[in-house]
Amino acid sequence: MFEGLAGGAGSLIKYNPLSNMTSAEVWNFLRVMGTPTNALHNCGYVSIGCEPCTRPVLPNQLEREGRWWWEDSTSKECGLHSGNIKEGSKEDGEEKKQEDLFKSSAVEHLDKARLEGLLNGPRDKDTIVVLYAPWCRFCQAMEESYETVAANLRESNPDVRVAKFQADIERDFAAEKFGLKTFPHVAMLPKAGKMGEAIKYDTERRDVDTLTMFIKAMASSR
Q1: Chain-wide mean pLDDT for the chain?
Q2: Rounded to whole angstroms, how far apart are CA atoms 20 and 72?
Q3: Exactly one of 50, 53, 78, 139 is catalytic; which is it?
Q4: Does residue 78 carry a catalytic annotation?
Q5: Quick check: helix, strand or coil at residue 54?
Q6: Residue 81: inside a domain, yes or no?
Q7: 202: pLDDT confidence band, cut at 50, 70 and 90?
Q8: Looking at CB atoms within 10 Å, which of 34, 48, 73, 205 has the fewest?
Q9: Which is the catalytic residue, given 43, 53, 78, 136?
Q10: Per DSSP, what are the bridge partners of residue 2?
Q11: Would you call 43 a catalytic residue per the annotation?
């Protein structure tokens, strides 16, 4: 029972007829009744939503791990909720003004021309770059760990560039060149890598150890 727009307890009642059924029982019913199902279920897409927030899961993964997979597992949330709209990228039709992120001197700021040059090569260093939006709470959440990685590498491996690119003001470019769909989008451009291609950091774990391990594995100068 929920409170509706008009207010007052019990103004909105929702029923879930499947709440007491297991997944196996649901699928048995569908097969018995010959009910058409989405073909993606046969391709590992156990939980299906919109295109950007859905991907197949691996064996033994929980079905919901394929939804909103870029988000912190403790706060997964569908972007269609009104609360997120109020806190999101736009307010009254304009980009919400936010203080910039990744302001550490160890993180190099890249403009569009510089980033495109590194993507297409030649590259003077291995480069890891975060494509971010200052208003994105997940970008904000990884700021400390990313700056720590940058500071550590400046001391231990100066041949790796840790960089940032504000992609919310260059969305079309970021989508075309890096496949950007959501923020943050972290990618590696190895010095000896194939020109025109970036290696995506494809996990929602953005802690210091995991980021460092990814960089060491992908960097040409390791």
Answers
A1: 83
A2: 28
A3: 139
A4: no
A5: strand
A6: no
A7: confident
A8: 34
A9: 136
A10: 12
A11: no
Q: Whole-angstrom Cα distance, residue 32 to residue 115? A: 55
Reply yes or no on whether the pLDDT at 82 is more than 50: no
Does pLDDT of 93 surpass 60? no
For the segment 74-79, the average pLDDT, to the nearest whole number, is 53
DSSP classification of residue 77: -
User: Are 212 and 149 a contacting pair, CB within 8 Å?
Assistant: yes
The rounded distance, in Å, linking the Cα atoms of 93 and 91 is: 5
In a domain, 165, yes or no: yes
Whether this prediction's pTM lies above 0.85 is answered by: no
Contact of 88 with 159, CB cutoff 8 Å: no
Nearest Cα neighbor of 212 from 166, 119, 168, 147 is 147
Taking Cα atoms as reference points, which of 83, 98, 179, 93 lies closest to residue 133? 98
Task: Say how many domains are in the chain.
Answer: 1
Count of H-run helices and E-run strands, the chain:
6, 7
Name the residue range of residue 206's domain: 108-218
Q: Is residue 22 part of a domain?
A: no
Amino acid at site 108: E
- Quote the distance between the C-alpha of residue 8 and its chain's center: 38
Domain assignment present for residue 144? The answer is yes
Domain containing residue 190: CATH number? 3.40.30.10
The residue whose two tokens read 């021309």 is: 113
The pair of structure tokens assigned to 138 is 């997940």
Q: Please choose, from the candidates 113, 204, 219, 103, the residue with its C-alpha nearest in 3D space to the C-alpha of residue 161.
A: 219
Distance CA 166, CA 135 (A): 11
Residue 35 has which token pair? 């009910």
